[in-house]
Design brief:
Layout lengths: L1 H13 L13 E2 L4 E6 L6 E6 L5 E7 L1 E2 L4 E6 L6 E11 L2 E13 L7 H27 L5 E2 L5 E3 L6 H27 L4 H43 L9
Helix pairs in contact: 2-3, 3-4
Length: 246
């Protein structure tokens, strides 16, 4: 009985090399560093080996640094490849070389991993935004695009409702940016090949960068058009019906 109890205690002591911290890796953002931690208070060294997602070795028996209190760490920064990085290692637990089990961490583009509920939420959000996009597009086509004119092209009255069209087009532009952003996140999360996701994300960045310029041009156009309409309205009030489309 004593021998059995001693064996159980020794077994628990040996597995102390495998720290719970190693099983608690958060997803790592591509290109950022990850700190690998291992606990072994009686070790004089702890080595770690890391494999890339393509199974090639990134680190072979790299020496972990002792931080005191039996905590060993290794900073790994070569995370350009997306996917699962497997971790193995060993230390001299009480003078005996002891391996810790194969563990891993995930590298993703944004540092997050979508679960099923998140994926459903993203797809629903994408569908809703696209629905709003087409509804708004339908509404734009129902709005007047110019002032009311007769058959000869003379302006009969000023239609200020036409200024709602550029407002809605700006709103459509914002929806396009949102669609590109959400689509790129979904592509990065679920597509093995990242080229398509990078193209979408590049389009998002370009569109987002152009937005201030578009808004400035839109505001200038609004003010200039309203100024001209005010002049035309004054002419109409005096009984003058000029030709031309505004």
């Amino acid at each position: 009985m004593k021998e059995l109890l001693l064996t159980l205690i020794l077994g628990l002591f040996l597995v102390s090399l495998v720290s719970a911290e190693l099983n608690d890796f958060a997803p790592v953002k591509q290109g950022e560093c990850v700190t690998i931690k291992q606990s072994c208070s009686s070790c004089s060294y702890v080595n770690v080996s890391i494999s890339y997602p393509n199974s090639s070795l990134a680190i072979s028996n790299g020496g972990m640094a002792s931080n005191g209190g039996g905590v060993w760490t290794y900073d790994f920064c070569n995370t350009t490849q997306l996917g699962r990085y497997d971790i193995n290692g060993e230390g001299d637990l009480d003078g005996t070389a002891t391996s810790f089990d194969s563990l891993y961490f995930e590298v993703t583009y944004a540092g997050i991993i979508f679960n099923t509920s998140q994926a459903i939420l993203y797809f629903i959000l994408l569908i809703v935004i696209m629905f709003v996009f087409f509804i708004t597009l339908f509404g734009i086509n129902k709005l007047p695009s110019s002032n009311i004119q007769d058959e000869e092209g003379k302006i009969l009255s000023i239609t200020y409702l036409k200024y709602l069209r550029p407002v809605l087009w700006t709103f459509e532009w914002m929806l396009i940016i949102a669609i590109l952003f959400i689509s790129s996140n979904i592509a990065f999360a679920y597509l093995g090949e990242q080229l398509f996701a990078k193209i979408i994300f590049t389009l998002f960045r370009i569109s987002f960068g152009l937005t201030p310029i578009i808004i400035i041009v839109w505001l200038i156009w609004i003010f200039v058009s309203m100024f001209h309409d005010k002049q035309f309205q004054n002419m109409l009030n005096r009984g003058i019906f000029p030709q031309g489309k505004l």
